[in-house]
Amino acid sequence: MAKKIAAFGEVMMRLQVQGYELLSQASTLNYSFSGTGVNVSSALARLGHTGYLVSRLPKNAIGDAAEASLRKLGISPSFLVRGGNYVGMYFLENGFGARPSRVTYSNRQESSFNTAPDDTYDVEEIAKQIDVIHFCGITLAMNDNVRAHMKVLARAVKEQGGTVVFDCNYRPAHWGEGGYVKAKPHYEEMLGLADMVMMNEKDAMLILGMETDKEERQDQLMELIPVVAQKYQISVIAGTHRSINGDNTHSLQGFIYKNQTFVFSKLLTFSIYDRIGAGDAYTSGIMHGELAGFPMDKTVNFAAAAGMLAHTIVGDTPMSSESDILRAMTEAVGDVER
């Protein structure tokens, strides 16, 4: 059952203020290393697979620290390349009550990953060694060179019979004004290469320009997602719906669409400790369930529970084991584990 799974993506340095201070109030910052690819690869390693990251780190002490962090997270460094001078950074201010959390990026376009030249990665060798590769729409938004790396690597893995996973993760701010016009052809190309896709009805409408006269989100989802699956020949599409409640708890429901059938998870309501990275936990849960051959209902409930647990753990990277997640699916939580 265990697979060799790679994720393609940038390693980010997360600089977090203490408690609920604003950046303008803080005098100290705690740093760690993360990124969508880091989160997915590490989460799947904890679920029993071999996790790799395809990325480029600077050849200096910061790159050394980043690689050491990845090793600690259980990620194999086999496909890491060194070069350039910087890592992208983001500053995190924790939200409280009516004030949302805020992320501010710095130095991202100059990072070693985003300035990697054409021949940086040994694409053919990577494709031969892995079973599955994960890509993210945030990475797709970076620049033309990064997009070219993604597409070449996705095609190489497909040619070797591997599975391509694509998380749409559309962030309008990353594409700039009128970004959907620029983004659409790149998303369409990645959707055409993907076997498994993470998206919901908002992605279909915002990125692909699809229209519906339905007003309820679930009705929109059930109309649009089958059309996307058929058009791009995608085997599995999964995603979530989230709502924020008046008491500041969040409610999350996952879905999976496969074999022309929708299955929804239980609606989970929980308090938030750290919001960043929870979507990557859900994605990892869907991937694991599919690779492990879980029934659809078990896969989607496993993924939703993984996402819920990620909200309770500090840092971007999911840290739950399969047994942790299975227990969260079936048992009441909150008491001391003995």
Unreliable stretches? none
Radius of gyration: 19 Å
Helix content: 25-40%
Strand tally is 15
Q: What average pLDDT do the residues reach? A: 93
Q: Give the ordered list of helices and strands.
A: EEEHEHEEEEHEHHEHHEHHEEEEHHH
The largest β sheet comes out as: 11 strands, mixed
Query: What is the overall number of helices?
Result: 12
Written overview of the protein:
With 338 residues, the chain is an alpha/beta fold. Helix content is 38%, strand content 23%. The protein has twelve helices and 15 strands. Strands 1, 4, 5, 6, 9, 10, 11, 12, 13, 14 and 15 form an eleven-stranded mixed sheet that branches. A four-stranded mixed sheet has the order 3-2-7-8. Strand 13 (250-258) and strand 14 form a beta hairpin. Helix 3 (123-129) packs across helix 5 (144-159), helix 10 packs antiparallel against helix 11 (296-310) and helix 11 crosses helix 12. It is globular and about 50 Å long. The model has no long low-confidence stretch (mean pLDDT 93).
Q: What does the secondary structure layout of this molecule look like, with pairings?
A:
Blueprint: E1 4-8, E2 12-17, E3 29-34, H1 36-46, E4 50-57, H2 61-72, E5 75-76, E6 80-82, E7 88-93, E8 102-106, H3 123-129, E9 132-136, H4 137-140, H5 144-159, E10 163-167, H6 172-175, H7 179-193, E11 196-198, H8 201-206, H9 217-232, E12 236-244, E13 250-258, E14 261-264, E15 268-270, H10 278-292, H11 296-310, H12 322-330
Parallel strand pairs: 1-4, 1-9, 2-7, 4-5, 4-6, 9-10, 10-11, 11-12
Antiparallel strand pairs: 2-3, 7-8, 12-13, 13-14, 13-15
